[in-house]
Specification:
Layout: H1 6-29, H2 40-51, E1 54-57, E2 61-64, E3 70-73, E4 76-79, E5 90-92, E6 95-98, H3 101-106, E7 114-118, E8 121-124, H4 126-138, E9 144-154, E10 160-174, E11 179-188, E12 191-200, E13 208-213, E14 218-220
């Protein structure tokens, strides 16, 4: 049997690994040469279809490869109403839209996997909360995550009557378990809380909500 030289074996292997590494880097960064601003109306339309919310992009659209490939929107508004100029619209400066990688290269966006918002101020009046309740019960939407933000409850004069810092919100349709969930954690009146609202589609006429008040060691169902 012919003895295999370790040096002969290691060179092709190392060459292959080096080629694979740099090919991956090139593939991940190739979309940065594209201009995505032309996709503005397409992204707004698909967002409205898949999230049943309204998006108005004011800033630039760019591409980021990490932590996973996504479109980054630097500025805009999001609203539950079609008129995003409404006072209830919430401004943001950090929105990540995750789409299939092949769509980034073809620049033919027709699907959104997930949306993440950071540092958004959510302005809500009483009528907005009623509209959001309808959204919870009757709208089918993909996952949207909100991190490190604030909820402002406003009165009819558009004056702030309550502010709640929010650490995290996950709002999504759990297809596997046939349910819809709104998970939230934050602080209100200097009390840390976490809550989970759930609607099980096997019992569509009912919903459950569990609120944990950590500082008070209390749970409300």
């Amino acid at each position: 049997m012919k003895k295999i030289n370790k040096k002969q074996l290691s060179f092709p292997l190392i060459s292959t690994l080096i080629l694979l590494f740099f090919s991956t880097i090139i593939i991940l960064h190739l979309p940065t040469i594209f201009k995505f601003k032309s996709l503005e109306s397409t992204v707004e339309r698909i967002f409205g279809t898949e999230y049943k919310l309204y998006l108005d992009i004011d800033g630039e659209i760019s591409y980021n490869a990490f932590p996973s490939p996504h479109l980054f929107i630097s500025k805009g508004k999001i609203s539950i109403y079609e008129n995003t100029a409404d006072e209830s619209s919430s401004n943001f400066k950090d929105m990540k839209i995750y789409v299939p990688l092949n769509q980034l290269y073809t620049r033919r966006i027709d699907k959104i996997n997930k949306v993440e918002l950071n540092g958004i101020n959510l302005k809500l009046k009483i009528e907005d909360i009623i509209s959001l309740r309808k959204h919870l019960y009757f709208s089918l939407n993909k996952k949207i995550t909100i991190n490190n933000s604030n909820i402002f409850i406003m009165n009819k004069k558009n004056e702030t009557i309550l502010i709640s810092p929010i650490t995290n919100i996950d709002y999504f349709l759990d297809i596997k378990n046939k349910s819809k969930k709104l998970e939230m954690s934050g602080n209100i009146f200097d009390i840390d809380f976490s809550s989970e609202w759930k609607r099980d589609y096997s019992q569509p006429n009912t919903s459950s909500n569990i609120i944990n008040l950590d500082d008070l060691k209390m749970q409300i169902k």
